[in-house]
Amino acid sequence: MRMRFGLLAAMLVAAAVTCVTALAGAQAAPGVSKTKFVIGGTFPLSGPAAYYAPIPVGMKAYFTYINTRRGADHKRGVAGRQIVWKYYDDGYNPANTAQQTRKLVEEDKVFATFGALGTEPQQAVVDYMNDRKVPQLLVSTGATEFGARYREKPYSMGWQPDYFAEGKIYGKYAAQNWPTKKIAVLYQNDDYGKNYLDGLRSGLGAKDSNIITTQGFGATDASVAQQVVAARQSGAQVVAIFGTPSPTVKTFATMKAVRYKPEQVILNSVSANDYVMGLALANSDATTLDGTISTSYLLNSNDPKYASNAFVKLYKAQMAKWAPNADAKNTFFYYGFAKAYDVVKLLQATGKNPTRAKLLNAARHMNWTNPGALKGVKVTTSATDPFPISQVKLIKYDGNAKIWNELGSLINGRGGT
Amino acid sequence: MITRRFVAGLVATLVAAAVILVLPLFLSDTHEYRFAFVATFFIAALGLQILTGYAGLISLGQSGFMLIGAYTTTILSVDHGWHELATIPLAGLLAGIAGFLFGFPALRLRGAYLALATFAIPIAVIALAKKYSDFTGGGGGKNLTRVLTGHEAYVLTWPIAGLMFVLAWLLLLGKLGRSFRTIRESEIAAVSSGVNLTVTKTLAFGISAFFAGVGGSLYAIVIGFVNPDTFSINLSLLLLIGVVVGGLGSLVGVVFGALFIEYVPLYAPDILSWAEKPFGSPLDPQRAGAGAAVYGFSLLLVLFLAPYGVAGLLRRAYKSLAPSSYTH
């Protein structure tokens, strides 16, 4: 009898504790206080993908701008809450991502992660984030599965057009404009690179046989010479490069070294940036780079025609103010700055008493235009469509002016899988 | 047999074991998680210590054998429904066999040439893991079936690390350990005193790879994800650095090496921003490469101050505390 009483007492205490914690949970979500939103992400500040290190800095510049300006409600920050932006280096290594992400969630108690970068690194923490019910939003990768698996992994979501869809656009373009030309594909031998390759094949359709060789390389490979030589020997007139900036620059440099001048180059958008092309140009031929085709959904902040665009002006001014040592011409800063706009919109949509549930709900009901994107590009999601940006424009590189120019009109790039 | 050094080693081991036992009481879940990584590095580096510190064979292939262990566990548990724990012995065994086989071509090479040949191991296994993507999940990697909390990871990894430590100690205690040390000092002397070079060297590679396999298996379980690039040559280098920092030829020292590999890169930006305040360092802690600079600097510092690693430092401290040890 005494045992039973003990048990009952224990149960009552447990129930009381549960109620209290449940109530406390309802009051404030982790990372949210009256004055603050604590958010974060992991990025490759070092390692093979360190080219992307400017992205969190660009995000920080925009958050600092939001924190210091007075909004429409006459308050600074997001409805009076300052954005605290925490980001850590994972060196593009999933083992580090796992640890740094736990640091963000368990020690820094972030509300959510935003824009955390890399297909494999983010893939490594998908289960953890969904287990802990911490939103992992607007990840900086176009791997299709961050959208496609939304039923199993509702807390994870991408931002940019997915790689498959982008590859498909190149395929369609090649089939239409170069129906008889042979294509060599140099791709990063992982999910991301294969995503592109599959998309390209799908877009080529019946012209799939135009691909005469596919050459895979590793993101951390010291050399891509073997792959470039194989492409040259195949006699392909068109070369498609599906790689991150570091191997992309190496590929262009190697093309020059082995005197391989394909008529046309297709380059994936994740490397199609004036800064990366500048580096490639310094190590390669202008004739090879000139006329390279890619896609973009953001406007090019270096393009003179956007010199008077309000958002580009804001970008340049805020970068000069908050990151004076940064080279704002590197559009990876701009990518971060533009992405941060959508982060702020999402935080604003959580209302007076932000919770993770409200944030997720907002992420599933995005419907606005991002002023940093190309005109006409919409940022939309729905309960069954978790891909925020779907429209892109083809862009073409001008090797003399050293700038990417827009080509044609917007294309709906959402191919599905 | 029972020398002062033996007693000192035993005491150090018991102290370390006690610390590991009570540590979870003081650590947050995040830090317990990090300590689980320390345990995996510890196990893999123990293997390398046997190979490099005892048998004198330098290897940069340890991460390749870790990959074999990691994928054995992942494929068996994800695709074949095995319990992760049950896969660990097999992960060690498969990696051990691979290491044993690699030992044969390695017989022809010495010193730096051997180190360069072992360079090929991670490169080769990473390429293979990417090539046979239907089997391994390819370059994109594979998620394991469950996510461990930091505490679960700690409780899983450290008992196994303790077991592996005892195993390493027992292996080195007898004739095999003596054979390893003899070939390290002089192969000619070893052969003339009846040590079979072929058996001893291939066995050293096999044992070392077995440890790497177990470490790799746990590494995969703790991360909850594997992809080939995680096991790049960098990881091998880190393990070698860990062995050197811990002190060549000391099993207990490996703990410090493992702590070094885990914690120094992680806190490098913090160390930098802390150093920035009084000294006004011009390096931005968040800047690309800033962490690596701190890491390199602390590595140099350790090697300058403790050329025989942490174990050498401890030995020196012990001797200065007990000067009478010379008179006995």
Primary descriptors:
heterodimer; A: 417 residues; alpha/beta; Rossmann fold; 2 domains; four-stranded parallel beta sheet; three-stranded antiparallel beta sheet; 42% helix; 17% strand; globular; B: 328 residues; mainly alpha; two-stranded antiparallel sheet; 15 helices
List the helices and strands and how they pair.
The complex is a heterodimer of chains A (417) and B (328).
Chain A: H1 2-27, E1 36-43, H2 54-68, E2 82-89, H3 94-107, E3 113-114, H4 119-132, E4 136-137, H5 145-148, H6 163-177, E5 183-188, H7 191-204, E6 211-217, H8 225-234, E7 238-242, H9 245-257, E8 264-267, H10 274-282, H11 286-289, E9 293-296, H12 310-322, H13 331-348, H14 356-363, E10 367-369, E11 378-380, E12 391-398, E13 403-412
Parallel strand pairs in A: 1-2, 3-4, 5-6, 5-7, 7-8
Antiparallel strand pairs in A: 9-12, 10-11, 12-13
Chain B: H1 4-22, H2 29-54, H3 62-79, H4 84-106, H5 111-118, H6 120-131, H7 133-136, E1 142-143, H8 150-173, H9 175-185, H10 187-192, H11 197-223, E2 225-226, H12 233-246, H13 253-279, H14 290-305, H15 309-321
Antiparallel strand pairs in B: 1-2
